[in-house]
Amino acid sequence: MNDLGLAYYINLLKNLASNATDKKLELAFMGYPDIVVTPNGYEGLLTKEAYESLEDRPNSENIKIIHKGKKRAGTIHIVPTLSSLTEAILKDFDVEASYTIFDFQTYEGTETIHDFNEPIDRKFYNKYHLLWNGGTLEHIFDIACALKNMTLVTKEGGFLAHLGPLNMVNHGFVNLCPVLFDNFYAVNNGTIIRCEVSPLSDTHQTHIIDDANKRVQILPNKECTLNVLVQKNKHKDKLETPIQGRYTQTSPWV
Description:
Strands 3-2-1-4-5-8-6-7 form an 8-stranded mixed sheet, with helices on both faces. Strand 4 (128-133), helix 5 and strand 5 form a beta-alpha-beta unit. The chain has a single domain, classed as 3-Layer(aba) Sandwich (Rossmann fold), CATH 3.40.50.150. The protein has helices spanning 3-19, 48-52, 60-72, 82-89, 143-153, 178-186, and strands at 24-30, 96-103, 111-113, 128-133, 154-165, 190-199, 207-208, 224-232. With 254 residues, the protein is an alpha/beta fold. It has 6 helices and 8 strands; from the N terminus they run H-E-H-H-H-E-E-E-H-E-H-E-E-E.
């Protein structure tokens, strides 16, 4: 989770807390999020008191090196636990949050084991107010099954945050395009709230995608992430497999 991801998460959680009716939020994460952000990245998002309440993860030094390298690891002062960050965000709200970490194997010891290449158990359907996919979808070979699973477990009215690679060669199995999410949620009761591209070198230099079905070229010399926020409007147990929009009408092609 970089600066932009942190801002997404904090603002989403505050919005959910402000509108919560049952005073309890159920959150789902695709893998345990590594929150690797410099102190400046928290400014304007957390108070000084809230920032100082964050707890460092036991393996934070390894995580800093993995994400930043040995030379830049020192720019990260803390890699907070998910629980301490969530508690800091919700400190001024009368809301509690619980979360499920989905993964195919154990890293932290708190994961719910499931391979998202396979259909998810129905007991998780329509459960979570927020599904956080901060860079996992592209690493799952059966991306269609994984995307359906993520949507199925999200609660009706809840949100899905998809942050993944737009043009990173060999980062994962695939790069992600806006049309994937636009066309999938168009037939599966989801509304795209925000779709934007952000270069890794400057996560605050975002570029809004106004038309997900139009072919565009964006910052070809920089690695970029695609960030898509979706609201699930209605739950249904069986999701549709979309056909790319430009091919649904035959008349332009004949």
